[in-house]
Amino acid sequence: MKKHCLIIYMAVLLLIISGCSEQTSGREEEYPEKAIEIILPFPAGGNYDGAARTLTKYAEQYLPNEQSFALINKTGGANTAGVTEVFHADPDGYTLGFVQTSAITAEPHYGHVSYNHDSFQPIMKVLQVDGYMFVNDDAPWESFDDWLDYVKKNPGDFKVSAVPGAVPLLETIQAEAGIDFDIVPFDGFAEATTALLGGHVDATVGTVPGMKTHLDDGNVRPLFSSTGRDIKGDIPTLKEKGVEIEDNKMVGLIAPKGLPEEKADILDEVFKKALDDPDLQKEFEQLGYEAVYADAKEFQEQITSTFQTDEKILKTAGLIE
Amino acid sequence: MEFLHLDIIDIALLIFVILCGTFVGMFAGSLPGIGAMVAIVILLPLTYNMEPLFAILLLLATYQAAEYGGSISSITLGIPGTPAATATLMDGTPLARSNSPGKALAYSLTASTMGGVFGAVILTTLAAPMASFALQLSAPEFALIGLLGLAGVGALSSQDITKSLISVVLGLMAATIGMDDFTGALRFTEGFNGLIDGLNIIAVITGVFAISEILTMINKNLNKKRNVDREGKKVRLSLPEMTKTAKPMGIGSITGTIMGIIPGIGPGASSWFAYAIAKKSSKHKEQFGKGSPEGIAAPEAANNASVGGALLPLLTLGIPGSAATAVILGAFVIHGIQPGPEVITNEPALTYGIFVGFFLTTVAMFITGKILTPWFARVLTIPASILVPVILMLSIIGVYTAQSSYFDVWVALILGLCAFFLIKLRFSIPSFVLAFILGPIIESNVRRSLIMSDGSYLIFVTRPYSLVILLMITALILITIITKLNRNKQETTSNSSGISS
After folding, report:
1. Domain span including residue B108
2. Chain-chain contact of A164 with B181 (C-beta, under 8 angstroms)
3. With an 8 Å Cβ cutoff, are A167 and B184 in contact?
4. Chain A contact set for B184 (CB, 8 A)
5. Which residues on chain B are in Cβ contact (under 8 Å) with A318?
6. Number of CB atoms found within 10 A of residue B50's CB
7. Domain boundaries of chain A, sorted by first residue
8. What is the tally of structural domains in chain B?
9. Class of domain A35-129+248-316
10. Which positions carry the signal peptide feature in this UniProt record (chain A) (predicted)?
11. SS3 of B35, please?
């Protein structure tokens, strides 16, 4: 008798459970129902790792169903290894990428990656990272015009240290402005900066987050920026000075193509709320990052136009045909 | 002083954090392929919610202990746990196999601790002057330092100098694979995307040492067990044994600290330098390569001294001196701190806390090492039939973890097979690895120097520091030739006298 009771009890229980589960799987707004993986194509502790971790820390507070993000550093191939992984992932909303757009706008031109500039579903732009040319604070060039004048009068004399990724841009600047300076490539930003601080080169190209310490200490100062947008302060951009070149470094979230619109909307809302958080903005500022939001459509347009300018830069530098 | 305001619970917690880091670091370091860098990267996410001081010290303790941990597998298995522990292999393995693994590990632990303490002393006392010294060195000096290392290659193999030189050339050739950073041209990548960044150092080291060693073990009797008696497992050094290795420890400490300060040289090269210098200046050169305690002490002191060295430019200039410190820089940044001269003036509590804590990491490393080493020494007594699958599995995991790349695993397996035959033909694998490490340093810095000087080779003699290094290279080569000539002369005279009598 007791045995029978137990069996009936179990059967009823099973029915209830299966009923429940059917109900949940039928509802779309349950996304996300597990942790969302975000692939970071750069090493832990490097480049934009800090920005990614700060952003997801805040975004988790707004993520439905108390789910979380799992950040995975997948490095190699000038950021292309991680981006390729996003490209091949299922567009189910559980694999995203937090990437520097150069891996999408510059690398495909070389023809050794399987994706293109329009192979992804962008979620949003998170950061705009402007490039600058920095000189030591005691350098003789006070302004862009001073510098241009010097370089024009002394061709091949001025030396700039740069990471390999910045070399094509520098070559294009030379071609566009009709000037000639020497580019000294270094493996990493640390080595390139050391060469500047030690006075072994005259300048280096880099970003504000990478130079924050030395800017705060007053050891270095920016001479000009290569960005295409208007920047605050009195530092000129190449475009303002009549050199028709722009280099827009962006960092943003992307997903594999085919991501359902509802899921994209949820993600956009979650991350936008995080970006609007004043505490996040304060943390970003301390690190020297500038949060610049652009929605999926606008972000894709910017990626496409940067893809075209990068093609021009790489052609001028003679790296592609 | 500010940092003494920590209450007793904080101090207990701090010690706990340091011990945790030490344990993880030592364990990770001893696994082939997984080194300081990977251990720090794994622990990094745990530090996000900690106080900055605790976070930094956890990572520093890991870094410090991993540099020692790498030598444990070098000594007991003949497989370096980290690239920086490859030089330890030269004498560590022979000494361990001649029935005293305990002694070999004890030399390594003592030297590591001394090196770590020396690095810490320099960091706390000479940070500012050393940093400005480091700034005066650039491409021409780095290129010559690399050449100096290659010139010292004669010190590595005493057997067959021709085959050793061929190994060097092979190593230099392997180092040219990958994208040329100066022109963007792809060299010898043969269409493989995995080769664009060149051969991964972890894959190379694991392949040529671990995989080849596994193949060698399979070739021998798999069920043979080494018997190590109680005495051989003891991890204790007598006073005379300590004083005997004081000189190489000093050499290692100084070399390691200086090489650590220079960004881009790395602990791998610094331990080889220490080994070469210690051998050149030793009274018992003939014992090197056969289990000389001096040959263990020098590289071991060097790789731990490089930890303090690498931290110096990070704290004073905000420039990381090694790959592992670059990750630690990331940890600072995540806590909203940009290391640099400002930090020392604005956050004295944190800076002094790091200085004091850094000394504690060496103490923690010594104690943990002392407790764990007798267990590690027993590894030698495990039969090969069990060791082989375990090492193979750990090696493959280690290589994969470094870059999450299957391609690297194949690289390691193929290079391992090649190395197995090269070892059978008596080529020198350490020479190959040294050239592989130094090749890119020399190549890129020579080219960089020539861009700086507009193509003039005079840049190598007009700069004071580079001139000094150049003279050292010349002296090293001259001494080698003169000693060789003298020996030949002696041999001929002794031969002729033998005939006449």
Report:
1. 2-491
2. yes
3. yes
4. 164, 167-168, 319
5. none
6. 16
7. 35-129+248-316, 131-225
8. 1
9. alpha beta
10. 1-21
11. coil
